[in-house]
Write a structure and sequence with these properties.
The chain is of the alpha/beta class. It has helices at about 1-20, 45-55, 70-80, 100-105, 130-135, 170-185, 195-205, 285-300, 300-305, 330-335, 365-380; strands at about 60-65, 90-95, 110-115, 135-150, 165, 190, 210-215, 235, 245-250, 265-275. The protein has 3 domains: about 1-25 and about 45-140 and about 275-345, Periplasmic binding protein-like II (D-Maltodextrin-Binding Protein, domain 2, 3-Layer(aba) Sandwich), CATH 3.40.190.10; about 140-270, Periplasmic binding protein-like II (D-Maltodextrin-Binding Protein, domain 2); about 345-385, no CATH class. Strands 1, 2, 3, 4, 5, 6, 7, 8, 9 and 10 form a 10-stranded mixed sheet that branches. Helix 1 crosses helix 2 (about 45-55) and helix 8 (about 285-300) packs parallel to helix 10 (about 330-335).
Amino acid sequence: MKQLVTVCRIMMVLVGALAAINGSADAQTSSGPGPSQFSPGARRPVEQQAIEKLNAWTVGLAAGQLEGAPIRFATDIARVVDDGDNLHVLPIVTRGPTENVEALLYLKGVDVAIINSDALEEFKALIPDVQKRITYILNLFPSELHIFVRPEINSLSDLKGKKVNFNTPGTTAAYSGPLIFDQLKLDVDKTFIPHQIALEQMRSGQGDMEAVVFITSKPVEAFLHGKWDPGFKFLPVELEESEFYVPAKLTASDYPQFIPPGQEIQTIAVPTILAAFNWPRSSDRYRRVARLTDYLFDRLDKLQQPGFHPKWKDVSLAATVPGLTRFPAAQEWLGRNTASRIATAPAAGATIGSDAPAAVPEANTPEQQQRLYQEFLDWRRQNGK
């Protein structure tokens, strides 16, 4: 009897999850039941109530592939905000942050998604106002651009016409890398093979591979171990104007084998963000995402403790995202809470190296907020937090 009850419970969960994906439980069928079909109308009221309760506060979160950081972030979020019937987040394995924009726009059952900020560029031809349809809840982490080159390459211009690898299709490097190189006006011989193979070709001097492009959170494991001959290095990158990218840097503490103490390499980063569709305020899906936002912001300090992805320590509620507006419920949460609850940056004039960041000064513009966020990251790295 106990096994039968368990099976029935599992079936109810499966039916409820399918109903959530399709929009409602009653949408599973549009015709009368056949000999082997089940009619939703045949459900007992108690079962229907259980299904409605299960779906009422369930949020679908499109994350990424199993080996990537986004699915880990999504799982962490689901753990921290879980509140039984009051809130249940379902992390979804997807093709990755780039294609999650499509999922957020069109896939049933997806309420929020982890995306890269520049992934919107692909949709502008089809949807000129795509940046009005998608909002951001939180800037999760920056994915820094690493251009790693052989000794004979000394500047970006030296790469023109040379073979450069952008990792395999579906990765951030494969999507964002060519976009960035176009903005830099660098015409190179692009390849899309696994970085491990490209790095070995660079090391051995075979295959004419002159550079690899990583776009991921630093430090990259591939550059922390193994011995490289003198002259292999990272190239500095600067974009004077960028709609999607933010300034960043690689330091000696990140890559001691390639960057001397006290020196740093200027580069840019692609913000990886938690985004939401711009749901109407009166909609049920807006209310679900608003509750998720409140729970997540209230419990961010838990995510920054041991046991969760270490990059949560770099997450700041005040960090903005170029080109996007914040989800209204997120902006309202910020307005309700004092600056002391927002982990951002040390105040102007604060001494770097103190035990904790000072109170946060007021930041009224996206540029000021982004500057404070970068100062906060610098402070955290210098203090080993």
